[in-house]
Amino acid sequence: xxxxxxxxxxxxxxxxxxxxxxxxxxxxxxxxxxxxxxxxxxxxxxxxxxxxxxxxxxxxxxxxx
Length: 65
Known about the structure:
Shape: flat
Mean pLDDT: 93
Distance between the termini: 45 Å
Order of helices and strands: HHH
Low-confidence stretches: none
Structural class: mainly alpha
Radius of gyration: 19 Å
């Protein structure tokens, strides 16, 4: 359960923003989307490898120039 401490005279939209940020960090929505459609372990692993290669490529390009 998420608890967002609200200060006195703090606007509701600011508190809502804090709540949304905390909720996003928990990863509930991401997990829910992943569970909607089953993905085989081999396919899951392949996408992980593709992401890692892409990130490495970006890091190398950043380091070079």
